[in-house]
Amino acid sequence: MQKTVTYFDKPGPANTAQCLEIVEENIRAFHYRHVVVASTRGNTGLLFAENLKDKDINLIVVTHSCGFKEPNSTELTDKARSAILSAGAKIYTGTMITHSLETALAKKFSGVYPTLLVAQSLRRFGEGCKVCCEMIMMAADAGLIPEGEEVMSVAGTGYGADTVTVIKSAASKRFLELKVLEILAKPRG
After folding, report:
1. Is the pLDDT at 36 greater than 90, yes or no?
2. What is residue 156's DSSP assignment?
3. Are strands 34-38 and 58-62 parallel, antiparallel or unpaired?
4. What are the residues facing 92 on neighbouring strands?
């Protein structure tokens, strides 16, 4: 099998449209059925939902958890949430695997904790690659995607999308069974 890998000169939202094209090309060529996309405020999630709505794809849009930015707040706008759901996508808003209890403990008591080590290790491949792995486990934990299937995952650095991966899904309890099979796009720097 031969595939093309796209390396972006810079991370960020300027790469979002090209990430969507890469996903659409791979859905056509390889018949992926599940796509998981990160979306903080809803712009990226809505773009993917609108463009994939007639393709018989199980699209999961993963948001920041409630309270991520500040207590009692969600960053995904109500308007975006409604539009994403109307386009047929599902939305996951819940605990972020690498921003859990250990993050609070590390902040309060310092020290190194296993989840933080995993997050930092995955970041060696880029912020988007870390988020792609994390979201796959979150979606599997929630029963939104099946375990053991090849799933396309899209994330970014900050806002927008700049990373596209294909990952063999696993729930967080079976993290060591999660396999990054392909990195189809990522920022080089």
Report:
1. yes
2. -
3. parallel
4. 62
